[in-house]
Amino acid sequence: MSDYAKSIKDLPEVFQAVGINKDSHKAQVLLLTCIDFRFFDEVSDVIRSRKLCGDYDHVIVAGAELGPQIDFGKEPKPHWKQFFLDHLRLAKELHEIEQLLVLGHEDCGAYKRFLGPIDPDKEEEIHTMYLEKLKELIRQEGIDVKVDGFMLRNTVDCRN
Ligand SMILES: [Zn+2]
């Protein structure tokens, strides 16, 4: 038997091991995070502290709240917006999610790449502005979901 077939056969046990109820097709929340590897510890902390283990969908776009809105400059990314909206609609349709939880983070490379250098004193204000713009986009698209957002700060160094 190949490893692939074995891993498929073992899937139900794997799901149980991580606390997912395979009989339930509902999730409370869709998480939207940046791709940045430095912040996945903080993302895990939020999942644990909000008791979301096994109860969330997850979509990852560079820049989190910014990613679906890069429709400006030399490198507009309308397909990122489409990707995000398609997945938000799919999470609602398949898992009846009620909340979008947006976890942006400080020192985000996507913000710097697409907006230029950011004054650290203005960083939170700029993130909040893009979170509000994301809420407006979702409202305009007619998607009924509660949106909350947080800016993660990198306080943990996993390499130690
Ligand atoms: Zn980032």
CATH architecture field = 3-Layer(aba) Sandwich
Radius of gyration: 17 Å
In CATH, the topology is named Beta-carbonic Anhydrase, Chain A
End-to-end distance = 40 Å
Can you tell me the CATH class?
A: Alpha Beta
Question: How many β-strands, per DSSP?
Answer: 4
How many structural domains in the coordinates? 1
Give the helix tally.
6
Tell me the overall shape.
Answer: globular
**Uncertain residue segments:** 1-9, 14-19
The average pLDDT score comes to 85
CATH homologous superfamily (4th level) name = Carbonic anhydrase
Bound molecules: zinc ion
Helical content stands at: 40-55%
N-to-C series of helices and strands: HHEHEHEHHE
Strand residue content: 15-25%
Largest sheet: 4 strands, parallel
Q: Strand pairing plus helix content: what structural class?
A: alpha/beta
Major β-sheet strand ordering: 2-1-3-4
